[in-house]
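Before the break, one more example. Copy the sequence into your notebook; we will annotate it together after we see the structure.
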Amino acid sequence: MSPIFRIVSPNFQGMGIGLLYGQSPASLRNGRPLGYPVQREMSELETNLAGLEKILLGGPKIAVLTGAGISAESGIPTFRGEDGLWKKHRAEELATPQAFYHAPALVWEWYDWRRGIIASKEPNAGHRALVRWERYFPHFVLITQNVDGLHRRAGSQNVLELHGNIWEVRCTREGTITENYESPLNPIPPLCPACGAMLRPNVVWFGESLPAETLEEAYAASASCDLMFVIGTSAFVQPAASLPLLAAERGVPIVEVNPQPTPLTASADFVFRGRAGDVLPLIDERLPAGSTGG
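Here is what the structure looks like once it is written out:
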C-alpha cells in the first residue's frame, strides 16, 4: 500500500506539503518538519503521485464519491449536531416526512435558512478539478452525498446526487420536480405553480429510501470503473459507504482523500491525508497540460 500523506494548505508556512504521518504544526520550525527531511517527504509524495499518474494516463473509467468534507472546504456546515441546531431544533427532528406533515412551514423555514447559507458559498479548487477531469476522461461518473448543488454550480454535468438537491422542489400532489433558486423563499411554504399544491425539498429525509434509479446508476458506476476516488466522506453512511467496496472487491485501485482516517482507509491503495482543494489540484497537474479544457 502506498504511503499516507497529510497535505496542508500552500499558505501554511510557505509550504505546499507540510505534515507527514500526522505531525502537528508545533513540530515545525522555519517551515520544515522536525525529524523528517523535506527531501524524503517530497520523494515519497512524488512516488505516490507518480503511481497514480500512470493509472490516470491510461484513460481509466473513473468513479468519484464525494461527501460533506469537500463542501465544508467551501464553508458549508454539515447541518448535523451543533452545526444543524436551528431554533433549538435538530436536523433529525426537521428532516423527516413526519415533521413536514405536521409543520411544513417550520421545515421550510429551516431549509430556507440552509439555502441562504449555501447560496453565499462558492465551489472550491476540489470541485473545479473534478469538472476538468469530467471533460478529460471519456468515462467519468461523479457520485455525491451532498445536497448543496456545488458540483453542478462548478460545472460538473454527470452527477448522481444520492440524497437529492436542495435547489430542487417536488410537488406533493403531482410529483413533478423543478429547480428553484429563490432565496429567500416567498411564500413559505412554496406552492406548485401548476396545481397550487405544496412543494417539498427534493431531498432524501430520514426514514426515506434513496432514489432507486440514481442508486442503481451509482452501483453500476462503482461496479464497472477502473479507478475510484473517495473524497471527503466519513465512509460510515450507507449505502454510499458500500460503493467503493464494490470496486475494491474487483481489485480496482481506490484513492482516498480525507483529512482523517476512515473505515475505508485500510482498503485504499492511495491515501492522501488532506483536503480535496489541496490534493486534487496536485493530481490534476499530472494530466497533460491543456487537455482538461481549463
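Residues 4-71+122-163+210-284 form a domain with the Rossmann fold fold (CATH 3.40.50.1220). Confidence is low (pLDDT under 50) at residues 1-38, 290-294. Try to locate both features in your own notes.
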